[in-house]
Amino acid sequence: xxxxxxxxxxxxxxxxxxxxxxxxxxxxxxxxxxxxxxxxxxxxxxxxxxxxxxxxxxxxxxxxxxxxxxxxxxxxxxxxxxxxxxxxxxxxxxxxxxxxxxxxxxxxxxxxxxxxxxxxxxxxxxxxxxxxxxxxxxxxxxxx
Length: 144
Hints:
Elements: H1 2-29, E1 39-47, E2 50-56, E3 68-73, H2 80-88, E4 94-96, E5 99-105, E6 111-116, E7 119-122, E8 125-130, E9 133-143
Parallel strand pairs: 6-9
Antiparallel strand pairs: 1-2, 2-3, 3-4, 4-7, 5-6, 8-9
């Protein structure tokens, strides 16, 4: 009988610890990735109606690699925080911890990107608004 009682106590403790671990992991994963808190790092004009915007995630810590997000958009004016909030309403076409070494766009808005580094996500195209028109730019990549 003492064995059964000890087993019940140990079983209850292990179950409670596992429940705390699961609840803790769930809570940690609920924080999400708030792109509106990113920091604007760089803006480059690609052509008359297309600009490249690069932001850096501010949600990581010392053990989390830098996460850079790259957006295509028309010219955005205002303070850096306003530009980042505007970009956060859309989606980056590329996210990673590397850098774009070259980006070009042809007359058909087809964009070619040369990127070096680890890729977290990338898209086949980017859609943005310029002078009231939605422009979709297909994207091809050269990733090193």
